[in-house]
Amino acid sequence: MAPDQPDESAPRQLPTVTYAFAVCRHCDPAALVGLPGLDKAAPVRTLAAGPLTAVVQDVSAADFTEDALRQRLTDRDELGRCARAHHEVIMAASAVTPTVPLPFATLYLGDGRVRAALREKEESFLAALGPLTGRVGWG
User: Which residues, by range, are in coiled-coil regions (predicted)?
Assistant: First the structure.
């Protein structure tokens, strides 16, 4: 193979977006280990920005285009799988720290955009987290 030609046998890196599940002050990453989230190909992880931490996962951008998302939302089995995965991640984070869940399909173009959103809404998130500290919800 010529050095200036791409290696066709190497796995291609598909574009990803950052899916945000929840926001907290700090979440022990160990609490998220082994969670499949929405895409088993990438780990669920934390992303810090100032006093806040987002619980996120890289997901395939192709799986969350407008058409793909519309199709996903009309497939009851797929919608159920995604909703359960979203809820499972939020519950894992909230088991170890006060957590504000984010709506299903909260997507950002990358980690930098997540951090920018956390900074923009820092006061609101901190205000929402304040009453949750030191309390447990039963429902």
Answer: none
